[in-house]
């Protein structure tokens, strides 16, 4: 039937002669059988090896991806820990700075208190020296007054009283008496 179809339309196809077609078909079948016997297993083996390599590569890449994800998670945890540590260090630094500031303030206050205490001691010493000097001056003035009183007549008590009052008034007006109580205003 195929031949009749082909023979019916000879202008369409160029066909070899029948014996060539048979020998060609036999040669093709032998070649196909030889290739199937030798080449196809080698090709299948090569394709299987290629598929195995690809599969291994995919498995390795999947393992590498999983490992990379693990490392990424580990690095993120380490980064979070480092941030936490940095925050702790910052907080500790702030506490240390505040403690140091408080210590410095306390030290400055103590030094200021010591300076005030020394100044009060110095002032008290100066006041004591001034009192001593004032007492010495008062003694001298009293002696001077006593000498003047003795020089006057002892028989005239009224004139002595007026003399003492006048002398005291003179002393008060010159500022040596300091208002009569030994202190200056």
Task: Give an account of the 3D structure.
- The structure is a single chain.
- The protein has one domain.
- The relative contact order is 0.03.
- Residues 177-185 have low confidence and may be disordered.
- It has 185 residues and is mostly helical.
- Helix content is 86%, strand content 0%.
- The N and C termini lie far apart (153 Å).
The topology string of helices and strands comes to HHH
The number of distinct helices, counting runs of at least 4 residues, comes to: 3
* Computed Rg: 65 Å
Number of strands: 0
Instruction: Describe the main β-sheet briefly.
Output: none
Share in helix? over 70%
Task: Please specify the SSE layout and strand pairing.
Blueprint: H1 2-8, H2 18-151, H3 157-174
Brief rundown of the structure:
It is built from three helices and no strands. It is an all-alpha fold and 185 residues long. The longest helix is centred in the middle third of the chain and has 134 residues.
List key phrases describing it.
185 residues, mainly alpha, 3 helices, 86% helix
């Amino acid at each position: 039937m195929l031949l009749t179809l082909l023979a019916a339309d000879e202008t369409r196809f160029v066909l070899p002669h029948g014996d060539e077609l048979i020998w060609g078909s036999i040669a093709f079948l032998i070649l196909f059988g030889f290739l199937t016997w030798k080449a196809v297993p080698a090709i299948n083996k090569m394709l299987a090896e290629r598929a195995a390599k690809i599969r291994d590569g995919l498995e390795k890449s999947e393992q590498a991806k999983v490992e990379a994800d693990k490392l990424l998670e580990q690095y993120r945890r380490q980064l979070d820990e480092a941030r936490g540590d940095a925050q702790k260090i910052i907080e500790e630094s702030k506490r240390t700075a505040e403690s140091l500031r408080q210590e410095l303030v306390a030290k400055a206050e103590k030094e200021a208190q010591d300076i005030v205490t020394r100044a009060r001691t110095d002032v008290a010493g100066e006041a004591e020296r001034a009192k001593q000097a004032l007492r010495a001056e008062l003694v001298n003035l009293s002696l001077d007054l006593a000498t003047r009183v003795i020089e006057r007549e002892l028989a005239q008590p009224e004139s002595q009283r007026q003399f003492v009052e006048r002398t005291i008034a003179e002393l008060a007006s010159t500022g040596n008496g300091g208002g009569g109580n030994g202190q200056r205003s």
